[in-house]
Description:
By secondary structure, the chain is of the alpha+beta class. The strands form three sheets. Strands 4-5-3-6 form a four-stranded antiparallel sheet. It folds into two domains: 64-249, Reverse transcriptase/Diguanylate cyclase domain (Alpha-Beta Plaits, 2-Layer Sandwich), CATH 3.30.70.270; 252-331, no CATH class. Residues 1-6 have low confidence and may be disordered. 49% of the residues lie in helices and 12% in strands.
Amino acid sequence: LLIAMKTNASYRTFQEVFVSNFHNSLSFDDFLNLSVDKNIEVTQIKEREIVQPSERLKRILHFLAKNVFDYGNIANEVVFSYRKGVNVRDAVLPHSKNKFFFQTDIANFFGSITKPLVSKSIRNGLGSVPISDIHEYADVILNLVSYNNGLPLGFPTSPAISNMCLLNFDKELLIQSNELDVSYTRYADDIILSANNGEVLRMLAARVGGLLQEFLGAEIKLNEAKTRYLQQGQKVKLLGLVVLPNGQISIDRADKVEIETLLHLYLNNDDKFLNYGLVLKNKRAKNDKALTRENVISMLSGRLIGANAMAPEYLLKLRQKYGNTIIDMFLHKSAK
Length: 336
């Protein structure tokens, strides 16, 4: 206890951390008294309410994300979203050797996380924050990071807070998964279970919705339209990545075709390279803006960087086919 007290006493106060971060560009009174309602713009995009913070509020929220919520308590063993040093591949990897798969997601994820749940998670989940008096500011923090009795989509603090709010659910589902020899991971609102026994997997999967409501409230529900069972012998696609029968993880065949077509055209035909880039751009979102060769090169760089992170074995094949120099140019964004 004495060691803990000494360690805590060595931490700076919240105000000291705030002032050292902002100097004179924002006052501590801004943090204490800022009105969220007067510093947001609410828009509707495809039935989703997006809450855009003002520049001043955004700076405070980024400060809270970095100095407070990055230290929040989450289930690191199973959660791979909104964390430094891990990505989608890490969320899929624990499932790669299994035969049966269950994938679902949480409907209206942020909108289902209520202010009382956020409050509870903040008060219980900040013990590791290296600020001596962090709990004295719990109410102020709560009011800054919530809106309309919930967790707003559009605030930079919401992703990390959502992981904190699901801590007890994650821990309980992990316990039950381990008891049944089932693998469990979560990436944001996507929940994945897998096992080598399909019957056991279905039994545990049937409990997920009830566990969510037990720990997060009756208003939270699974998205039935995105709930599915898969097994080896079918195309197993999890979080956009494909689990191959040999247990390797790769990107989708359609993505590979597009990447390799872009590489081939880059090397052989500038006009077709530009035209194909336009086709791919319009495939994802119609856009009247002119597309330049540099835009398509940037697109290809982004895809190769993503593929390198998600499916490094595939990048080795591309290196063998197109050469290290070409691939490295795109990975380092030095292609011309």
